């Protein structure tokens, strides 16, 4: 069965890998990115199976217009993948206001608006898949990466609610939660030098070297594709042994902390006779 995909952030990294794998399996792709010429090689190779449009996902009006155009031009889109995003390494205090505004606009608000733009089309056609690129960082947190975690924890909560809202329409959602994937993501991330009070502390650390990134970009995206076309996709897709280990550790610790407060939590209940 030939499927049609819509992918944001298709210029490099996992977005580009996804476009390549989907085209290689014979599907069609509507790819969006800031500079369409970055996909010229794929356009020459695959012809009209690749539909490309320029898009800055932080421009909500343009985002809605491109989504509407893609569904109109291609007739049906089976899988919508929200992939655009970036990172900033900085302590919460050292972040600038523009950095905060830009990351929330790109990683969180744009993801929400893409889902809102796509859902009416998916509902009208009787269903489809909505995939959101998250991270193991949507379930745990590291020092000097707080703003990135804001966007990932935020989009996880949004999709948890959205999944139940749209399930009656045949729309299935999946949060993709990779670990340390060997891509250009960390190289491209902005870095703010730590200010004096934080030097030598938990936030004052070197970027992760490539040899410590244990997850394959190709294998990660292959697993994403398998989940997207499966009859029963998971609501969360954990990818990478590192992600599984760190997430289960963090979740167990959080659950233990909550369980330990059972008796104290009850003190806030209405008194009973």
TrEMBL record:
Keyword terms: Oxidoreductase
- Asked if the Swiss-Prot or TrEMBL record annotates the protein with the keyword Oxidoreductase, the reply is yes
Region forming the signal peptide: none
The record's section on InterPro entries has: NAD(P)-bd_dom_sf, SDR_fam, SDR_oxidoreductase
Top-level taxon of origin: Bacteria
Q: Does the keyword Mitochondrion apply?
A: no
The UniProt family comment states: Belongs to the short-chain dehydrogenases/reductases (SDR) family.
| Name the UniProt record assigns to this protein | SDR family oxidoreductase
The species this protein belongs to is Amycolatopsis rhabdoformis
């Amino acid at each position: 069965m030939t499927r049609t995909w819509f992918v944001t952030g298709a210029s490099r990294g996992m977005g580009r890998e996804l476009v390549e794998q989907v085209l290689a399996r014979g599907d069609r792709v509507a790819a969006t990115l800031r500079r369409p010429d970055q996909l010229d090689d794929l356009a020459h190779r695959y012809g009209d199976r690749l539909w490309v449009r320029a898009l800055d996902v932080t421009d909500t009006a343009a985002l809605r217009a491109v989504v509407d155009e893609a569904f109109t031009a291609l007739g049906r889109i089976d899988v919508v993948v929200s992939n655009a995003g970036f990172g900033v390494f900085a302590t919460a205090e050292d972040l600038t206001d523009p950095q905060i505004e830009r990351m929330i606009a790109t990683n969180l608000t744009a993801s929400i608006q893409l889902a809102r733009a796509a859902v009416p089309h998916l509902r009208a056609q009787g269903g489809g898949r909505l995939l959101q690129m998250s991270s193991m960082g949507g379930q745990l947190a590291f020092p000097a990466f707080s703003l990135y975690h804001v966007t990932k924890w935020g989009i996880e909560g949004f999709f948890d609610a959205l999944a139940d809202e749209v399930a009656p329409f045949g729309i299935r959602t999946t949060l993709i939660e990779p670990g340390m994937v060997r891509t250009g993501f960390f190289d491209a991330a902005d870095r703010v030098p730590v200010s004096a009070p934080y030097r030598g502390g938990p936030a004052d650390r070197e970027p992760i070297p490539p040899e410590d990134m244990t997850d394959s970009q190709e294998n990660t995206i292959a697993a994403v594709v398998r989940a997207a076309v499966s009859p029963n996709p998971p609501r969360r897709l954990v990818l990478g042994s590192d992600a599984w280990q760190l997430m289960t550790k963090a979740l167990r610790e959080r659950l233990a902390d909550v369980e330990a407060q059972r008796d104290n939590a009850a003190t806030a209940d209405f008194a009973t006779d």
